[in-house]
Design brief:
By secondary structure, the chain is α+β, with helices and mostly antiparallel strands. The protein folds into 2 domains: 32 residues; 40 residues. 34% of the residues lie in helices and 33% in strands. It contains 1 helix and 4 strands, in the order H-E-E-E-E. It has a 4-stranded antiparallel beta sheet with strand order 3-2-1-4, with no helix packed on it. Strand 2 and strand 3 form a beta hairpin. It is rod-shaped.
Length: 87
């Protein structure tokens, strides 16, 4: 019984410290700023819809159909092509 009384305070202290460490980690993860999406310059406001994509090395080329004409943007190969862009 005496051993339990002696072990309890260090155990509670360790649990409190780990609770604080985990809480700080969760707070840091929630408040971390997400990466900004790459923005495409708007020229005439013409809407272009995704027509296809092709990986080329560390880049991905996203192809768009702009009501008869075509457009393309280059992004990181791990990013998703935007469904639409304004041109």
């Amino acid at each position: 019984m005496n051993a339990l009384k002696n072990a309890l305070p260090p155990l509670l202290t360790a649990l409190v410290i780990w609770g604080i460490v985990i809480g700080i980690g969760i707070y840091a993860a929630q408040s971390a700023e997400l990466p900004k999406r790459q923005h495409v310059a708007q020229y005439s406001g013409q809407l272009c819809l995704l027509a296809g994509e092709q990986v080329s090395g560390l880049n991905k080329i996203c192809y768009y159909d702009c009501a008869g004409s075509s457009a393309a943007i280059t992004i990181s190969n791990v990013s998703l092509c935007p469904f639409s862009i304004n041109r």
